[in-house]
């Protein structure tokens, strides 16, 4: 345990600065799910049972703690990830014994597809997750996306099948959908006692006990014997669970094969290890709304999800040498932290949420941002209780907090010790797929709008702004119509900017499918010094990076572009090379077919020349930009469009109409699943075909069908459709 002591002469008091909680008793976890699966309701129960609130907030009443933005309460959805700190003493411990009490840093994330960036960045800094499923619908599209994000980050998970009190709820069907669509390594840790209006409690398969939740708010957890009618099923499922656990320990496997009983302590210990290694995903049951099962989920978080000490050291690179570096979760290591979110707070201004991976940092000290290479003073540090703030003097390894007063730090910035710098792996976000024209109502709004849009795009990396060079209009871009609608609404409420918007448009891209060369000279004589720039380039489709392959020194590469400097003998002086690259990037922004941004291009600078007097950066930039445009036009350019994963849930009698209508929208039907009494149709559909779809769907199905949609990938637009888009742009 680390101790520090500060003397404040002004007040004549000492303030102890120490780690107030040991690292092994910290759990950083998130609650993730498809929209309406009950995440926020589960979070509110957690707050109540951990003593953070004295009343349970309800989503339908608009008084939840984690959904604190006005737009969230009005719509009944989560938009921003809310962070909460609270404490939990497991139910199996006597109240007076707090030796197992654990600090939770919880993030309640959005379920709506337009806000998946929030989920992605939250998972990047969390050590574990509770994935909530709707007991009627089972695995839904957003559940799959969130699961995939968690897989990418190797985040340990517990599954909670919620809403088992609802009409049509089925624990077994939901469990089967997890096995079929997410992971074969899921295994029942509990089974429910009754379903729908008869849902009374759960059976713990390890302890072989039944648990009921009594009292007004289900706060009393009562242990009883398993009901006789469930005993045979419980024994069968327990055998399956034990078998799954012992697979991960040779000694236990030996004991099991000998037919001997394995102690509960050994089973829990091995299960914990397997969960942390993402080899097992235990499945729990309950109904958060009816106050059944939540406390046992919290026990499972303590028992099975990792502390910061249980996860591998964080990886990064040395900014000076590019060599890989690791940092362990320890207060003794050099300080390193990752900013994962920016948020404008009406009282304190901008908050930078960060996760400390190693070392410690005091409020008021200077901090080094290795991403920008700049130093800043860390003003105040606050710990978060949803929309309330608790000020702290010092943060330690494994903690999640927010900084007040950092101007340079953005999402994915690394904060670290200047003498021992590190750049942590950044969070990668998907490009926007939809755009919209926006203009201020008055001249006074004009100035304010620029500032408001910048603030909002700093907060959300999937929300982008650009100016249309031809028309001078401002274009906003994002992941969906709802996201853009919310941003325009926030501009009005938070910044007092009233703006009018155009119709949503698809964010097409362009790429090339062949190799081509181009040479361009830019020469201008304007009295005195002239301008001279001369480049020769080759463009090719960008090849994927081979895992582990080293990138040559003359190559600069990002996800959608590669620049190769093959200049020999100084035919273009070194100081002009960055201007050439900049010109090529600007040429890509203007497109080659219909004015959409060019992507997935490898561009090699092969030759050129210079003039002793007239050569300048601007001349090379213009020459390179024109050369790129010229080469791209000859490299068989094509349009790319965003393809969406769509799932339509409809009563069976409308299925033929729905699939037929999807077929007319260039959809690829991928499969049909049972969803309770309904059918779930899975398809891939171009985004351009989906505007206004909900109105048609409702009129086709008497208002009984619904759909979800999320971005999947970009694909080449068919020739006839591409021609229409190009004509419309002229």
How is this structure best described in words?
The longest helix is centred in the first third of the chain and has 19 residues, at 228-246. The protein has 5 domains: 23-230 and 280-310, P-loop containing nucleotide triphosphate hydrolases (Rossmann fold, 3-Layer(aba) Sandwich); 314-424, Elongation Factor Tu (Ef-tu), domain 3, CATH 2.40.30.10; 434-507, 2-Layer Sandwich (Alpha-Beta Plaits), CATH 3.30.70; 510-635, Ribosomal Protein S5, domain 2; 642-729, Alpha-Beta Plaits, CATH 3.30.70. The chain is globular, with a radius of gyration of 28 Å. The protein has 16 helices and 41 strands. The strands form 9 sheets. The chain has an 8-stranded antiparallel sheet. Strand 1 and strand 2 (13-18) form a beta hairpin. The protein has 730 residues and is of the alpha+beta class.
Note the main sheet: 8 strands, antiparallel
- CATH structural fold name of the largest domain: Rossmann fold
CATH class of the largest domain: Alpha Beta
Unreliable parts: 1-16, 53-81
Give the N-terminus to C-terminus distance in angstroms.
68 Å
């Amino acid at each position: 345990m680390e101790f520090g002591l500060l003397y404040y002469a002004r007040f004549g008091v000492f303030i102890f600065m120490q780690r107030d909680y040991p690292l092994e008793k910290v759990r950083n976890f998130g609650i993730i799910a498809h929209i309406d699966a009950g995440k926020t309701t589960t979070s509110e129960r957690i707050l109540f049972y951990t003593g953070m609130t004295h009343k349970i907030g309800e989503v339908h009443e608009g008084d939840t703690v984690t959904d604190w933005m006005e737009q969230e309460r009005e719509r009944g959805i989560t938009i921003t990830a809310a962070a909460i700190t609270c404490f939990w003493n497991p139910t199996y411990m006597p109240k007076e014994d707090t030796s197992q009490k654990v600090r939770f840093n919880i993030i309640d994330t959005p379920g709506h597809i337009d806000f998946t960036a929030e989920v992605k960045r939250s998972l990047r800094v969390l050590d574990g997750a509770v994935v909530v499923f709707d007991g009627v619908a089972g695995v839904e599209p957003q559940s799959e996306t969130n699961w995939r994000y968690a897989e990418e980050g190797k985040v340990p998970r517990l599954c909670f099948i919620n809403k088992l009190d609802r009409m049509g709820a089925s624990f077994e069907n939901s469990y089967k959908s997890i096995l079929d669509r997410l992971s074969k390594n899921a295994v029942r840790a509990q089974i429910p006692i009754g379903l729908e209006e008869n849902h009374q409690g759960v059976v713990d398969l390890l302890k072989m006990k039944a648990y009921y939740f009594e009292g007004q708010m289900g706060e009393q957890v009562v242990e009883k014997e398993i009901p006789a009618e469930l005993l045979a099923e419980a024994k069968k499922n327990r055998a399956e669970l034990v078998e799954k656990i012992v697979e991960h320990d040779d000694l236990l496997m030996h004991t099991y094969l000998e037919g001997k009983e394995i102690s509960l302590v050994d089973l829990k210990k091995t299960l914990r290890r397997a969960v942390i290694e993402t080899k097992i995903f235990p499945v729990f049951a309950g109904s958060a709304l009816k106050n059944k099962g939540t406390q046992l989920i919290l026990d499972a978080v303590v028992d099975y999800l990792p502390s910061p000490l249980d996860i591998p050291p964080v990886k990064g690179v040395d900014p000076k040498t590019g060599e890989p570096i690791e940092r362990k979760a320890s207060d003794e290591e050099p300080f390193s932290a990752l900013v994962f979110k920016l948020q404008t707070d009406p009282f304190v201004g901008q908050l930078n949420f960060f996760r400390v991976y190693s070392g410690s940092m005091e409020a008021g000290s200077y901090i080094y941002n290795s991403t920008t290479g700049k130093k800043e003073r860390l003003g105040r540090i606050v710990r978060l209780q949803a929309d309330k703030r608790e000020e702290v003097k010092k943060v330690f390894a494994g903690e999640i907090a927010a900084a007040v007063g950092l101007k340079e730090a953005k999402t994915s910035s690394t904060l670290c010790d200047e003498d021992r710098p590190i750049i942590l792996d950044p969070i990668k976000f998907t490009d926007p797929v939809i755009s919209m024209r926006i203009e201020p109502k008055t001249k006074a709004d004009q100035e304010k709008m620029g500032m408001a849009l910048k603030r909002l795009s700093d907060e959300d990396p999937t929300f982008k702004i650009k100016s249309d060079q031809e028309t001078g209009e401002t274009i906003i871009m994002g992941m969906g119509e709802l996201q853009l609608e919310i941003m325009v609404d926030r501009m009005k409420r938070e910044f007092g900017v009233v703006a009018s918007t155009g119709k949503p448009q698809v964010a097409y891209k362009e790429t090339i499918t062949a190799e081509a060369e181009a040479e361009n000279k830019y020469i201008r004589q304007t009295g005195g010094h002239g301008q001279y720039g001369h480049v020769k380039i080759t463009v090719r489709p960008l090849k994927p990076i081979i895992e582990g392959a080293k990138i040559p020194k003359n190559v600069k590469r990002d996800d959608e572009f590669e620049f190769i400097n093959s200049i020999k003998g100084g035919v273009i002086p070194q100081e002009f090379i960055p201007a050439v690259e900049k010109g090529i990037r600007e040429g890509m922004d203007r497109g080659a077919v219909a004015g959409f941004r060019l992507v997935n291009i490898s561009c090699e600078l092969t030759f050129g020349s210079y003039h002793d007097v007239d050569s300048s950066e601007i001349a090379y930039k213009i020459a390179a930009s024109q050369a790129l445009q010229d080469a791209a036009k000859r490299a068989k350019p094509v349009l790319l469009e965003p393809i969406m994963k769509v799932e339509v849930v409809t009563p069976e009698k409308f299925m033929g109409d729905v699939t037929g209508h999807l077929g007319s929208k260039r959809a690829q039907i991928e499969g049909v699943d049972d969803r309770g009494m309904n059918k779930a149709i899975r398809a891939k559909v171009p985004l351009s075909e989906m505007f206004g779809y909900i109105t048609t769907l409702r009129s086709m199905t008497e208002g009984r069908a619904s759909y979800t949609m999320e971005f999947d990938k970009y694909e080449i637009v068919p020739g006839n459709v591409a021609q229409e888009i190009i004509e419309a742009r002229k």
